[in-house]
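Entry 12.
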Amino acid sequence: MPLAASPARRRPRGLAHDLVDDFSSRIQAQVLRPGDKLPTESELMRAFGVSRTVVREALSRLQAGGLVETRHGIGTFVLEARSTGMFRIDPSDMATSVDVLAVLELRVSLETESAGLAAVRRTDAQLQAMREALRDFAANVGEGGDTVSPDFRFHLEIAHATGNRYFGDIMSHLGTTIIPRTRISSAMRMAPELRAQYLQKVNREHEEIFDAIARQDAESARAAMRIHLTNSRERLRRAQALAQAGQAAGTDAAEGTSPPAA
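Predicted 3D structure (tokens):
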């Protein structure tokens, strides 16, 4: 496929959004057909003149919209068009932390039960896939690498281990933009040492879930998942409050006033 960026792509609303529009148009026009493999991240960066962060955000939105799927270690592929009756969240609905908070409420119910079922029904191969996702997550904690993809893979593997394909379908439609860290990092602009501490805490919570599933303890798996997602929700709320406080302080400074004492 030709990879030249469209002349009208560079608009102030955001490079990732423009990249999503570009690929969505190609898919709808069947320039890209189901089963076609997208170029690599590096190829997209060169062709569109954008950063890896922009490319990953765009791919996450396309995945959240049910247009593509990423197969670990293989690549990203165009999906068959979904029927309108299927569960779907528009990528643009995930653009703010408010949306992520709302989806986290859904995930608490969905994934708590998912973990319990996975503990009872998982296979050794599925357990190994979860372990590999956690291994990839841990390997990237101290290196500033990609922890979002293995995080999502871990949760998706749990959904698959339920033996009920609809759990996996819903998680696939939600996509990697449900990972609160994609919003927290931008809101808090965490220093590397704070990011590592935060990710280590997330990893410990993941390990608690994994251990319960490994020993086929359904109630402990449900409890560990609920704690993890509730903690995620609270971390995002705190980050959101800090961001809002920063915006308010900036406004007060611009107007020559001081914020009220806490």
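Annotation: The mean pLDDT is 77. The beta strands are 68-71, 75-78.
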